[in-house]
Amino acid sequence: MVVLSVIDIVLLIAGLAIYLFIVGGQLTRIAANLEECRDLVRRIKRNAEPISQDVGHINETGTIVAGALPLLYDMAEGIVKGVTPEPDVPAERGPARPASGRRRSRLHDGVGYLPAGTSPLADAHARGR
User: Is the pLDDT higher at 97 or at 127?
Assistant: First the structure.
């Protein structure tokens, strides 16, 4: 019994050691990625410092442009309406109909349904049988 207990404890410690080894490797990779991200953020901050002085001017210009957009849009619509020719199509147009006339559904034939007023012989003759 003592031998089995010692074997269980050794296996438990070995399993924990393997688990810690795997987790340690993953944490090392995460730390390397975070260091790289930190360096990228510092580089972005260093590159953005000269721009930050002009952000106020950029925002003012953007506000002016955004305020002028509705006026520009209305002017563009007026230009498009002025140069678009009116179509010579009548205002009321009926539904489109196929040139061959009305098509007959064959879905009813599969279940043996005959519409009222037709006979099986007339129906077969009309289909060319």
Answer: 97
